[in-house]
Amino acid sequence: MSRRLLPKQFLPLVSERSMLQDTALRIKAMAGAEPPIVISNSEHRFLVAEQLDELGVKPAVQILEPVGRNTAPAVAVAALHVKKQDPDGLLLVLPSDHVIADGAAFSEVVAAAQRAAGQDLLTTFGIRPTQPATGYGYIERGEPIEGQNQIFRIKRFVEKPDAQKAAEYLKSGRFYWNSGMFVFSARRLLEELGRLRPDILSAAERALAAATRDLDFLRLDAKTFEACPAESIDYAVMEKTSSGAVVAADIGWSDVGSWSALWDIGKKNGVGNVMRGDAHAHDASGCYVWAGSRLVYLLGVKNLLVVETDDAMLVADRSRAQEVKDIVESLDQKLRTEHVAHSRVYRPWGYYETIDAGQGFKVKRIMVKPGAALSLQLHDYRAEHWVVVSGVAKVTRGDESFELKRNESTFIPPRTRHRLENLGPEPLFLIEVWSGDKLTEEDITRLEDRYGR
Questions:
Q1: According to the model, what pLDDT value does residue 146 have?
Q2: How far apart are CA 16 and CA 25, in angstroms?
Q3: Is 172 helix (H, G, I), strand (E, B) or coil?
Q4: What is the largest CA-CA distance in the chain?
Q5: Each residue's pLDDT tens digit, 253-284
Q6: How far apart, in whole angstroms, are the C-alpha atoms of residue 332 and residue 418?
Q7: Is the confidence at residue 5, as pLDDT, over 80?
Q8: According to the model, what pLDDT value does residue 207 have?
Q9: Quick check: pTM over 0.90?
Q10: Distance from C-alpha of 44 to C-alpha of 27, rounded to nearest angstrom
Q11: What's the rounded Cα separation, in Å, for the pair 42 and 48?
Q12: Do 175 and 134 touch, CB atoms closer than 8 A?
């Protein structure tokens, strides 16, 4: 489900909204919260913008990373941005792909972390463990912070333990799961980063100073940011600082790191099955089923994960859910593409789906949003045939410009400049057929593009 071009934060894995949208609404509901600073990969910029726009959430700024460099550089850039307006401004750092079931409890621990940050502490959220999980890092608490309820000095961070160690941590009552969420002032974070990892801070400063505006986005300087060391905020700062604190949090949290985690938090029927989509079972128990595009029926099985999409299926023992990452690595080594993109690929103007492909041809279904347009472009090797299914298309072909209505079609020869636009109030759907000897997405020359690609 989570693929390189459509990671899990953009998917409706828990509610009817995406995990990014749930995170944005969580912030929007908090009293006194400023509009969010959103940091995303450049490749996902339009997905982020569109999903937030659906909620009526306008970010303070959407900062684009040319490459991923883990969380320390990203948080440094956000802190530098805030420092320009208010050096003592507080940052609440949230991954966009976490589940928090208890919103009221979350607001309470955020308020507690704010009070600790007011004492110049760098505060993280420690999740009270409910089981001896081996998939999380842990934080051992130290002495309580004077005058603060359920906030402690951080004694140490520990890596993901084996089952025996995890059981010992759970029994001791001194350990929390490391949530990867933080509250601190911009000033204190930058002071500690400058003391502990000046190389990361310097690279972040240069990348932000040389950033450029691109439509509604702030694009970090690629050369400078790519040279920045890739390190998490945990390793760079939190594990080394003497000002670290952990607030105990019982908020219904999950980082949804595996399919078994979705079974853990899912709504189970009387025999422990969690079913999504057109999924059914007889004499089956303890299973998680995601039926994405067709009927899935289980018979006489226990504790399985079954995940079905229109181009791939996973069947696994639920206890081995963490090994899915090994499958992805195997697909990568075999140069497969199923882990890269779904058959539906989202673009700023809408989406396309590959329906069929073979020697010398490819068939796509295209949706263009109202008011949107593809780039003015041409192809060296392929011809295209367009058939409108619904809506009205405005077509540019060479020096011509004309409209196509339902059941009308046109032909675009190779090396012919062309553009497709939807000027109507409803989505435009059409079937596109490629023909030629070389059919790749890379065979495109953009002559003009309103999205800056």
A1: 87
A2: 13
A3: helix
A4: 75
A5: 999 988 999 999 999 999 999 999 999 999 99
A6: 35
A7: no
A8: 97
A9: no
A10: 21
A11: 10
A12: no
Containing 412, the helix (H) or strand (E) segment is strand 409-412
Is 185:90 a contact under the CB 8 Å cutoff? yes
Closest CA to 124 of 137, 34, 171, 160: 137
Q: Give residue-wise pLDDT tens across range 333-392.
A: 998 888 887 788 889 999 999 989 899 999 999 999 999 999 999 999 999 999 999 999
Domains of the chain: 8-254 (3.90.550.10), 259-333 (no CATH), 344-448 (2.60.120.10)
- Which tokens sit at 165? 């160690």
Rounded Cα distance, 453 and 441, in Å: 14
**Whole-number Å distance between alpha carbons of 78 and 186:** 8
Give every CB contact of residue 171 below 8 A, 6+ residues apart in sequence. Answer: none
Query: Which one-letter amino acid corresponds to residue 168?
Result: E
Rounded Cα–Cα distance for residues 199 and 209 (Å): 15
CA-based Rg of the chain, rounded to a whole angstrom?
A: 25
Q: For 16-28, how does the pLDDT look when each residue is reduced to its tens digit (9 = 90+)?
A: 999 999 999 999 9
Read off the pLDDT of each residue in 305-329 and give the average, rounded to a whole number: 92
User: For the chain, what is the total number of helices (H) and then of strands (E)?
Assistant: 11, 27
Q: How far apart are CA 436 and CA 411, in angstroms?
A: 13
For 170-193, what is each residue's pLDDT tens digit? 999 999 999 999 999 999 999 999
> How is residue 434 annotated by DSSP?
E
CA distance linking residue 226 with residue 375, whole number of Å: 28
As a whole number of angstroms, the distance between CA 23 and CA 194 comes to 30
- State CA 404 to chain mean position distance: 37
Q: CA-based angle 70:130:179, to the nearest 5?
A: 15
DSSP state of 54: H
